[in-house]
Design goal:
The structure holds two protein chains of two kinds. By secondary structure, chain A is mainly alpha-helical. Chain A has helices spanning 2-14, 17-47, 51-65, 69-83, 92-121, 125-133, 138-153, 155-168, 181-191, 196-225. The radius of gyration of chain A is 21 Å and the shape is flat. Chain B is mainly α. The chains are: A mainly alpha, B mainly alpha. The interface between A and B is large, with 77 and 76 residues. Chain B: It is found in: Cell membrane.
């Protein structure tokens, strides 16, 4: 038993498991920023007074929320890069990494949009009415009154989206990012099949360690920052 | 939402209507312009050639690629959602058990499988079953991974469904002399299950989407079939688009069913019927603010 553990530990060091997790964290970080920006814009569109913007926002969310992430990632590489020769970086690895980030961001923006909209739902009607009563047009009302409260109400669902994004960053394997965790786990098991349980548990526990603090943090933030009403 | 949406801005007057009109026209032009640019770029690369698209709608394409692929996707999703339901009921009630040990073990199992990426589990089962020379390893790996992940999500749905029932329901059961576990089984669970039906249908959307991960472990589902067809016919872009459209239509119909169920059932249970955001973590983190619950129910 102790031998098995130390052997697994040796393997983890030999194959640079931490480096693989670092790739996933980087994917998550950039995709989170991009999808937050895109998702906020989409949420604004969906609550705006302009019907065409509302329609476009709804269409975006319905399309990307219902498409498997794997298709989007495959499309990024085989379609965008393979067929249309879209290149975002001079080297292969950097190019696939950026394509994967964009694929992740495009997909999760739909969920960020819905999280923020559910945050908007927590803002009482009186707040919006008060904003209108003092003569604020839509955009200033959204910027000064609605969104600041909506973000506080949306922390828990946004946290869930972030957790999903971190776990979904493994799907970058479908976008030919070969240095991330799921690809490395596959390689490690294929070459060291005796240690299949130990290798899987190493990666699984790594994700548990990453996910649980995010959950705890967003739960405590959402209760601490909640608007007391 | 509809009442609140209208509250976010005044009913547009003549000037605002003009501005909105202009906004609509400008927005429309921008959307059309982007579409035109994309089409132009596609046209320059020769991706709009008619035969690239028409070959998708031949009998061969459907008979040998898309229909078997779709069948495999639906087969995996069907087995997975049934298994996940069983898993979820077992561990969801386990987390509500009177025995501390059962509660703790169920809690650990559920939290573990909720935190591990589905793809890691799929690859693990695929290799494990492959080493043991099991037939149909890709299919089983897809189903096992989906059952474990979605089962633990459903377990949380069961737990929160029982937790969201009015307190009086459980108290009434105890008051007429039922034991706590009898109360759970004959009073709380039936109502919680009805309340979570819409969320269950939403979870089916997650299962269907995640079944496409099977492509990575060579399970011959819709995405892989589309990819094989596209590589063989030199129209990978077009066949991926077709596969995506099939997924979007099925999932969109399921979302409509979930929404309809949520409205239909809301009068039939003391619990709140919600459909969940459908990203794979529909349950609120335990102890999170209650106002997240109507998130999707309010969305149209």
């Amino acid at each position: 038993m102790g031998d098995y553990l130390s052997q697994t530990w040796e393997l983890a060091r030999e194959y640079d498991v931490l480096g693989a997790f670092w790739v996933n964290i980087q994917l998550t970080f950039w995709a989170a920023i991009l999808s937050l920006v895109l998702g906020t814009a989409l949420a604004l569109m969906r609550i705006s007074p302009v019907p065409s913007l509302r329609w476009a926002g709804t269409a975006y969310v319905n399309v990307f929320r219902n498409t498997p992430l794997t298709i989007i990632m495959t499309f990024m590489v085989l379609g965008l890069w393979g067929q249309l020769q879209v290149t975002l970086a001079p080297d292969f690895a950097g190019n696939f990494f950026r394509l994967a980030v964009i694929g992740l961001a495009v997909y999760h923006a739909a969920f960020v949009c819905e999280s923020i909209r559910s945050g908007v739902n927590t803002v009482p009607i009186g707040q919006a009415e008060a904003a209108r009563a003092i003569g604020l047009p839509f955009l200033p009302a959204a910027r000064l009154i609605i969104l600041p409260q909506a973000f506080r109400g949306a922390i828990a669902p946004l946290g869930n989206t972030l957790i999903a994004l971190l776990k979904n960053s493994t799907v970058a394997a479908a976008a030919s990012v070969t240095t991330e965790t799921s690809s490395l786990m596959k390689t490690m098991i294929e070459f060291n099949s005796n240690y299949i349980y130990g290798i899987f548990l190493t990666f699984a526990i790594g994700y548990v360690i990453l996910v649980i603090p995010i959950g705890l943090l967003t739960t405590s933030l959402s209760t601490r920052l909640a608007v007391r009403r | 939402m509809s009442t609140q949406q209208s509250v976010l801005f005044d009913a547009p007057g003549p000037r605002a209507r003009r501005v909105i009109m202009i906004g609509n026209v400008v927005g429309g032009i921008v959307v059309l312009g982007v579409a035109a640019l994309v089409l132009l770029a596609l046209g320059r690369k020769g991706q709009l050639d008619a035969d690239l698209w028409t070959s998708l709608f031949t009998a061969d394409a459907w008979q040998y690629y898309f229909i078997p692929g779709l069948q495999n996707t639906l087969r995996a999703a069907g087995f997975a959602i049934v298994g996940a339901l069983v898993f979820g009921l077992v561990f969801g009630t386990g987390r509500l058990s009177q025995l501390r040990a059962v509660r703790v073990v169920s809690g650990i199992v559920v939290e573990f499988f909720r935190a591990v990426p589905v793809l890691l589990m799929m690859i693990f089962f695929y290799l494990l079953l492959g080493f043991n020379k099991v037939d149909d390893a890709p299919f089983l790996a897809v189903v096992f991974a989906l059952v474990l992940y979605n089962g633990s999500v459903i377990a949380e749905l069961v737990r929160s469904g029982v937790g969201n029932l009015p307190k009086g329901q459980g108290e009434a059961g105890l008051a007429i002399g039922l034991t706590p576990s009898q109360t759970l089984r004959s009073i709380q669970l039936p109502q919680a299950l009805i309340a979570m039906l819409p969320a269950l249908v939403s979870q089916l959307v997650v299962v269907l989407k995640d079944s496409a991960l099977g492509q990575i472990i060579t399970y011959n589902e819709l995405l892989r079939a589309a990819q094989l067809f596209g590589v063989g016919n030199g129209n990978i872009l077009q066949s991926l688009v077709l596969a995506a459209v099939i997924f979007i239509v099925i999932n969109w119909l399921l979302t409509l069913v979930a929404r309809w169920l949520s409205r239909f059932l809301s009068g039939r249970t003391a619990g709140a019927t919600t459909t969940g955001p459908g990203i794979g973590n529909p349950t609120v983190v335990a102890g999170g603010p209650a106002e997240d619950a109507p998130a999707e129910a309010a969305a149209r």
